[in-house]
Design brief:
The protein has about 140 residues and is an alpha+beta fold. The chain has one domain (about 5-135): Sandwich (Jelly Rolls), CATH 2.60.120.460. The protein contains three helices and eight strands, in the order ββαββααββββ. The chain has helices spanning about 20-30, 60-70, 85-95, and strands at about 5-10, 15-20, 35-40, 50-55, 100-105, 105-110, 115-120, 125-135. The chain has a five-stranded antiparallel sheet, with helices on one face. Strands 2-7-4 form a three-stranded antiparallel sheet, with helices on both faces. The longest helix is centred in the middle third of the chain and has 14 residues, at about 60-70. The termini are close together.
Amino acid sequence: MAFYLGTVELPTQKKQQMVDITARVRAEVKNSGVQNGLCTIFAPHTTGAITINENTDPDVQTDILNALERAVPQKGKYYKHEEGNAHAHAKAALVGSSETVPVQGGKLLIGTWQAIYFCEFDGPRNRKLTVAVVG
């Protein structure tokens, strides 16, 4: 069984944004040499998340961020966390810290319209993501 562990360094530019990391994850899968297995993308951050969604219409990413903002606004009277980023922690908890994608023939098995995104909820920051490939 092969195991590969890689890192994707990612500077974010905005307070909240979704960054398409698909090409970077594909490069890690290629570097792994694994032909058939699983690829897990993990965000070791409490104010950022990983998700898979549509990659063709940028309005989808805007809609997702707007929906999360409506559900968990940046300012709220119920937040106790004193750093001022309680909303970012809550959004990251809702979206999740990882995604796992099958690998077949050395390629990610994601849909035609899908991309892998890092969701920034407390930027801009320099993020490091972990990519594990097992085969």
